[in-house]
């Protein structure tokens, strides 16, 4: 264990906390409020934000799509530069928050903002931003990461920078009341896989990291088993806080991390439009079975501590079966069908994209080579 850790995002958690943005954003700011396709107009969130900003100078940019595109976001960058915006407020799910992070960084860069995603430009500063979360899943509201898509080339890439970590995030579970079941399930699955990416690796004797990861996994399992009763305050609040804690840097500090499921999943979203969380459920069981010898010890630990399985030589195998059942019980598929019927073409298309993005040695051991990814895709694609 060797790390430096800080999570500087100020969290305002609970009902009616949207009002807190009045104080959280300096009163002399020129604010650009960024949101998506309009869900915030149907659940009262937009009105609460407008109310809280009534003494601020502000304007808005809407239309950030799920899996936000650089094509759309560059229009917001133009506005931010032209109107000398000094504060950004993202109101929405992971896509809006990630998109706002891109706008924040690209507005402080004279070149093509896409350079931030390819790594050609390293972010040195950004417009400060805050977030009002309406869909718990990604953890983006209090982390340094963002994922942006270039539609024209079907490239879905990510960047990390401390400069785009939100200064504050409002987590009001009431904002979730209008979420369709599909998005609630996506939130459960995405948060679950975030914990797995930082936990199902190799033993590192991180007692706090392992213990906290197992607590979040058990909580998400309970929320999934209780999905029929999701329409209540405690269920919503607990999903919101668990999803935040799953990817705010804490459980991954100083321990090995994987992220191969995410890197391969991103290509399924870019090529076939699969929801982010669902792309993960498609890849992960096949990947775990492929890499079982590297991950056996942690799978056994998870089997005992999360699923309460009995000891035995096939404990790791049974743990993967339980993970797959967790998805199936939520009606989430673990094989790709969105590609149509030409499986060889789909496998090749994903492999080609991964090669283009230089994602050819993945995982905590760098053991997920292109050959292994091919095997994983043969089982993950129907
Ligand atoms: O656009 P609106 O109208 O707001 O509708 C959205 C969107 O259609 C809707 N929605 C959000 N809140 C709602 C609501 N509908 C009704 N009521 C509400 N309260 O939900 C739809 C999906 O939203 P989106 O933001 O795309 O979902 P999510 O939060 O799952 O974000 C997915 C994106 O985050 C990236 C993913 O790759 C994907 O692009 N990720 C970001 C990460 C990060 N920054 O750390 C990590 C993740 O692993 C992930 O890769
Ligand atoms: Zn994710």
From TrEMBL:
Q: Which organism is it from?
A: Vibrio halioticoli NBRC 102217
Q: Does the keyword Oxidoreductase apply?
A: yes
Alcohol dehydrogenase iron-type/glycerol dehydrogenase GldA domain segment(s): 8-173
Q: Where is the Fe-containing alcohol dehydrogenase-like C-terminal domain?
A: 185-380
GO terms for cellular component = cytosol
Q: Which cofactor does it need?
A: Fe cation
Q: What highest taxon heads this organism's lineage?
A: Bacteria
Q: What protein name applies here?
A: Putative iron-containing alcohol dehydrogenase
User: Record's InterPro entries?
Assistant: ADH_Fe/GldA, ADH_Fe_C, BDH-like
Q: One matching Pfam family, short form? A: Fe-ADH
Q: Keyword annotations for this protein? A: Oxidoreductase
| Family from the record | Belongs to the iron-containing alcohol dehydrogenase family.
